[in-house]
Please model this.
Amino acid sequence: MDETQRLAHFDHAHVWHPFTPMRQWREHEPLIVDRADGFELIDTHGNRYIDGFSSLWCNVHGHRVPEIDRAITDQLSRVAHSTLLGFSNAPSIELAARLVETVNTPTEGAEPPLVGARLERVFFSDAGATATEVAFKMVVGHHYHSGHPERDTLIGFSGAYHGDTIGAMSVGYVDAFHRPYRKLTFRTVWAPAPDVCRTDAPTNDPREWPSWDQERRVRVCDHALKEFERVLDEVGEHAAGVVIEPLMQGAGGMIEQPEGFLAGVARAARSRNIPLIADAVAVGFGRTGAMFACELEGVRPDVLCLAKGITGGYLPLAATLCTNDIAASFEGEHHERRTLYHGHTYTGNQLGCAAALASLDLFKKNDILSNVGVLQQRLRSRLRAELADLPTVGDVRIRGVMAGIELVASRSPWRSLDPEHRLAVQVCELARQRGLMIRPLGNVVILMPAPAMPLETLDRMLDILIAVIRTCGTDAKVSTVHPRSMEAPLS
Ligand SMILES: *Cc1c(COP(=O)(O)O)cnc(C)c1O
Model:
């Protein structure tokens, strides 16, 4: 038995993989990553793969980046972990100050001025899901301590994803994931997310993708904002906060919001004094071309959730930032019991914070945001030009270095693929055989190159992917199943 077989044996026997049908998993030898080199991962057989999904959306500067490696080993020579409960440590203090400075300073360029109060307070945790859970407690606790215990209902958007802990599940609802656990979740009210692709009549031009039609985008945006206001009116004085993935719903299938939607949501929430929680876990740290996505619409949320790219994709760390106004409602005399009784063992871990500081330095030094602009341009031009004639490509959605290619039975008229068809899975498997590591979401093939990826690597990635999509699956089974029938019911 060689080393890979030995590891595969124990993997199959003992490791429970996330989001993975385990019986089928055991039918194949797992791809066991052994090491990395820049933007490539190398398996135990020595095969190289381009990391086309940023190791689940978190890698920023590539792997084994000397500056981040050094920051971690330097920190390691001092201390790996103590705690923020009752004590403090330098890396978390430095990082909190740096995050505050960074989120309140818009990315240089043409962005509109930021509207809203500054974010001043940073609560550290260790995953995207924990960052959102803290955010929910921040707003609900804020109202409670301000004499408004009735303001306890969160408003989310259909098809959203905020993580897999019970609270995060309650606000981002995907029926297939959550059905057995519905009793455990709390009541949330959902507004319909704008979906340019499906909300409207299909496009009649077979060469065009629906989500690129400007007039259609405006119409869908206006309609979704009206619906949102209707939901706000319905929830009325019970509204605790609005939770949104800014610009792009990631795990829901790369559902891109039309221009002006985020700003419209922020305006409507603000006019009613409802805090806005931006879950920038996926869209933070350069993903969309700005540092934190919200700036692209001049929005400063009241609470901002960060994770994934925060350490450059090195270590589990997350941060929830809020305004002084919200933080202040948790301060008082002991007998008032306003303290936020919430924390995690590894809160403010020094290694993670040191990695995050080094990653932030690299954003400036390597001008990562300009690189994202270049990559976005290439994704747009190549995917549009080279997939346009394929009737099985229903839509191509791109924001910065987040891209979703939706496979369909037919684009015009729009007919979704049977979810059982697994065409996107097949595409990703073939891509992997040719040296590209990516993962699908339902019928959507996801591309998530690292923001720092060189153009040449992106081109190699696109060569593989486009060739695979072109050779794959013209035998698509037709289905009329709404692909987002997982959408949340309006409660
Ligand atoms: C991934 C993700 C999360 C959850 O992050 P974890 O670190 O996996 O808990 C939350 N919100 C969004 C928008 C995400 O993309």
